[in-house]
Amino acid sequence: MTEAPARPPGPRRRGALAVLLMAAFMGILDVLIVNVAAPSIQRDLHASFDDIQAVISGYVLAYAVALTTGARLGDSYGRKRVFLLGVLGFAAFSAGCAAAPSAGVLIALRIGQGLAAALMLPQVLALIQVIFPERERARPLALYGATLGLGAVLGQIIGGALIRMDVLGLGWRSVFLVNVPIGLAVAACVPATLPKRRLAGRRPLDIPGLLLTAAAMTLLIFPLIRGSAAGWPVWVWPAFAGSALALVALWRVEGRQESAGGAPLVPPSLFRRQGFRIGLAIALVFYSGNYGLFLLLAYVFQDGLHLSPLASGIAFLPLGVGFAGASLAGHRLTARYGSRVLLVGAGTMVVGYVVLIATLLPGPASSGWLTALAMVPALLVSGAGQGIVSAPLIGVVLATVRREDAGAGSGMVLTANQLASSLGVAVLGAVFLALLGADPQDTAARPDERGFTAALMGCSWLLLALAVGVGLLARRLPRGDQARPASR
């Protein structure tokens, strides 16, 4: 499918960018705002810790499974149409989450949210590429990165404030309802701002690739989420084996389809490029730590240090501010230094986690607020490192593939992003639970503040190892102009 190259005039482009960035903001806000609400959700719905992991990971997993298919649907049926459908679906599922009567229903609706996000969010970057000419894309892409950082900052504060105010007695349910007016406003602006494209043809969906990808990811993530809380029962090992078999089958099916001139969901030829393989590994390692860290901090701040949800959101500010500020600087640094900027970001994260470990080593201070304040420098530095890596990562990776493969490569990197996020929540959550020795909200065996900070310090060693891994992998990326992200 091809689209007409005509672009809307300048003022309309700015309106379109505002609509697209609002949708991106809503997507990142929904992921992070739930972390602040997680303890309240667990108490109100009488859920277990692994249920809360599933609430968070279910959204991410569904998004990861359907992401590339959502991008393909935009190619086939029009990005404006698919974007609008995703926005409306996201708002509807958000309203459903706000009314969920049980943890099981909430998990199912979060999966629906993830599927809607898979329709909505892939179109954002694609439409920026279509709407803005090559010479004007740098600023919209920089604003896109800054929007993600702003969502990371405001998600914690908005979530905490909504729970604290307890609007209409809704409690945690208001953190999902906040998406409804945003989604409806975005949908109302779509007809007047986003350009309509003439479709020149439709590419068939890769149904075998979609099913095998879904099977492989589900059989990998579900046992990680449920298996840790259940003491790793026997059934998890056949599930892991099934995931491996599904990946092997996916490789063979997609290889045959690509050899026959088809349009596979996962083109195997991309993996023959060393730079792409390394870049994908960086995305997996890097994003595994991000969402897991946000979940752990929410429980440490609220259940360990006894901060209110609003105070917990404010305590997240250093991490989010560091991320947002470094995201803007990271784009400019990448234009000058290419993939070497990832080494700077990884090194900054290492420093941040070392400072965090040193801060937690003596144990908690005399009050929760003093402990949170002591963590500010570590969170600010580690957040800055995350922003330096996150902003240019996709561009750096895509610079290692052929221009004609950029679409498929972008979808695969974004899929790796979401898969890694789900893995991070599962693995870091399991390690945190093991170090804590009890469910964070188990009233019969509730750990004290020292137990929470000790568990976070133990997980910080794992985060430190992941940051070192990012740096070691970044050293193997191509150097020179070919490693710098080209405008497309």
Describe the structure.
By secondary structure, the protein is mostly helical. It folds into 2 domains: 1-194, Up-down Bundle (Growth Hormone, Chain: A); 266-488, Up-down Bundle (Growth Hormone, Chain: A). 76% of the residues lie in helices and 0% in strands. It contains 18 helices and no strands. It has helices spanning 10-44, 49-77, 79-98, 103-120, 122-131, 138-165, 174-177, 179-193, 207-229, 236-259, 274-304, 309-315, 317-337, 340-360, 368-374, 376-398, 406-436, 449-474. Helix 11 (274-304) packs across helix 12 (309-315), helix 14 packs antiparallel against helix 16 (376-398) and helix 14 (340-360) packs antiparallel against helix 18 (449-474). The chain is globular. The two termini are 18 Å apart.
Chart the SSEs and their pairings.
Elements: H1 10-44, H2 49-77, H3 79-98, H4 103-120, H5 122-131, H6 138-165, H7 174-177, H8 179-193, H9 207-229, H10 236-259, H11 274-304, H12 309-315, H13 317-337, H14 340-360, H15 368-374, H16 376-398, H17 406-436, H18 449-474
